[in-house]
Design brief:
Keywords: ATP-binding, Cytoplasm, Ligase, Nucleotide-binding, Purine biosynthesis. Its main location: cytoplasm. It is an enzyme of class 6 (ligase). With 371 residues, the protein is an alpha+beta fold. 31% of the residues lie in helices and 25% in strands. The chain has a 7-stranded mixed beta sheet with strand order 10-12-7-13-11-15-14, with helices on both faces. A hairpin with an 8-residue loop joins strand 14 and strand 15. Helix 1 packs parallel to helix 4 (119-136) and helix 3 (86-99) packs parallel to helix 4.
Length: 371
């Protein structure tokens, strides 16, 4: 086949493979920093390779996997032209879902779809992913960047990722270990994290607020507050779970659906968790969203984390040790509530149960928030 004069090239169609290669050159050192001796082959292979032989010491290794994205928070990053923090949001959303079952996240891959490859921008995104993987102790073993001209605008992109971890079957955390009398330990969120941005963006858009607006309650601009990276909990959760004095029975990652809906997923049927709204100070960003949009409390609670990013369910005798361990790890934590036996004759109003299709326990939020 011969080339037609002035024919249509791949570049003319909107795909620049050389730009993709430049992006890889810019990001590869950051990716390599996440690699330990278990990662084989380096950067650029068709598949990431991970030496899994260490699990030979496990009696019954269970693989755990999770995948997620960042959602419409990427619109904030694009509007502000700040792209090196979104990686923490992606990694947090993925690896922390693995840590909740007690699994160590071993490796992760990422996928970036964009309208046009801007090498420095793509490299910034991946450098953020790699930095967050270092915090989580997870190897970034591969990824893909795809140009989709005509589907996405030149300055638009979306990110997604997947991770795999392993846990000894006897150490698996979850509803089977939760009992009446357990204590709920709330672990502070760093901000909105990566869920609920469609609501938040609608509120600030309706109010006519711009991202460069300085907000006194935040001590910085609106955009800077909304772009605050997600706290990555996995390493801290695993350290807490491995402390026998803490008596960790389960974790729940507070993502889409809010605190009650996610907590209910890790409770066995027949138990009810009571969460005290007055046990923590709701961060200013959530109060501003509430007041600015006159958002009903039910919508806030069903959409945003309201300052609680992770919950540990621990034995009653382990609560003090769990709090001390969190303090040593630098994670603000407090007693959020407790788990009790369900009373079928009790008032059922306000109970949250049956979320995410899981037939499990229930959660009731009581009292009023501070402020």
């Amino acid at each position: 086949m011969t080339d037609a004069p002035e024919g249509i090239t791949y570049a003319a169609a909107g795909v620049d493979t050389e730009a993709g290669d430049r992006a890889v050159e810019l990001m590869k050192d950051a990716v390599r920093r996440t690699h330990g001796p278990q990662v084989l082959g380096g950067v650029g292979g068709f598949a990431g390779l991970y030496d899994f032989s260490a699990v030979s010491s496990y009696r019954r290794p269970l693989l755990a996997t999770s995948t997620d994205g960042v959602g419409t928070k990427v619109a904030i990053a694009q509007a502000m032209d700040v792209h090196d923090t979104i990686g923490f949001d992606l990694v947090g959303m993925v690896v922390d879902d693995i840590a909740v079952v007690g699994a160590e996240p071993l490796f992760m891959t990422d996928y970036i779809a964009c309208g046009k490859v801007h090498p420095e921008r793509i490299a910034d995104v991946v450098r953020g992913i790699a930095a967050a993987c270092e915090v989580a102790g997870t190897a970034l073993v591969g990824g893909e960047t795809a140009e989709h001209p005509g589907l996405l605008g030149e300055d638009e992109y979306d990110v997604a990722g997947a991770a795999t971890g392993v846990v000894e079957a006897d150490d698996l955390l979850g509803p089977d270990k939760v009992t009446a009398g357990d204590v709920l330990i709330g672990m502070a969120a760093s901000g909105i994290h990566s869920n609920g941005y469609s609501l938040v963006r609608a509120v600030v858009g309706h109010a006519g607020w711009t991202l460069d607006r300085h907000v006194e309650e935040f001590g910085r601009t609106l955009g800077e507050e909304l772009l605050e990276p997600t706290r990555v909990y996995s390493a801290d959760c695993l350290a807490l779970a491995r402390d026998p004095k803490a008596q960790v029975h389960a974790f729940t990652h507070v993502t889409g659906g809010g605190l009650a809906a996610n907590l209910a997923r890790v409770l066995p049927a027949g138990l009810v968790a009571t969460v005290d709204r007055a046990s923590w100070d709701v961060p200013p960003v959530f109060r501003v969203v509430r007041d600015l949009g006159a958002v009903p409390r039910t919508d806030l609670e069903n959409t945003l984390n309201l300052g609680v990013g992770m919950v540990a369910v621990v034995g009653s005798e382990g609560a003090d040790d769990a709090l001390a361990r969190c303090a040593a790890l630098g994670v603000p934590a407090w007693v959020l509530g407790q788990v009790d036996q369900d009373d079928p004759a009790a008032d059922r109003s306000g109970l949250v149960a049956g979320t995410k299709g899981v037939d499990a326990g229930a959660v009731r939020l009581v009292n009023d928030y501070r402020g």
